[in-house]
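#data-curation
PF: Archiving a pair of folding outputs for the training set. Convention for this channel: one message per protein, sequence first, structure tokens after, nothing in between. First:
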Amino acid sequence: MVRAPSTDRRRLTSLLAALLQDAPSPASRRFDDELHRATATGGLDLWYARTLWWWQRASLREAHLYVATLLPEVLDAAARAAHDVGEEFARSEAAWNLAREETRRAGISAASPSEVSPPQPGARDRDEDRRRREQAIRAALAGESAHLSGGEAREPPPVTRPPSGDDRE
């Protein structure tokens, strides 16, 4: 049985949001370092540094939101597709069994491959397949984060308003 997409989506969205929020970002740390260096040497004023920092972080938040929203939808679609494939298989199997029975009634004697070597029990359960896919995705996300170096990005200097008469926002 396929679980309600809304339940799975909420759980996976929460998991992804937590993973993405805690993912180390060496590029963000480097960006922060360059901003600090530029402001310390006078190459960039604090107002512009803070503006750049804000929008760089906003772009990360947008990317995190995009992934956390999209991936659960993709997994739900994969579960629905797996369910549909299972139903199609059941229809095909029923049609095959009907045709085989009609062939027997007509007196044609031929063993089908499934009669010679019956299918092995233990075909993978769809819910188990879904759990394995989710686990693989979680492992991939965690593995991607784990190989990056740790450490926290420094905050940029506090915002100071530009001198009066400066019209920057």
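PF: Second:
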Amino acid sequence: MDGAGYHKRLTNEMPTTRSLQSWLEDHLSKVGKWVYRRDVNKNVLLSLAKLNKPKAIYAANTIATRYNHQLYYTPPYHPTLQPIELIWGLLKNRIAGDPPKSGADAVEK
């Protein structure tokens, strides 16, 4: 599987600066088992969350391991490792050599 970003959807959400403080508190209590004062600043909670960042769990890996498969990621758009890139290159060269006159002509070619 290529390493494109859309293939790497996380199943365990990580806190960001847009996260609500209540969500941050819940996240820290689940992940890090942290005990802290309730009057703590949101920035402090974010820094604690970054310190206790769990390992990323990707949805594709979860599905693959459920069916006893293992995924290997290749670089995106790499012509040697992604055969579809070679096909796209051939198609682009063919269209550039003989450009279609209309949409129907493009489908015909």
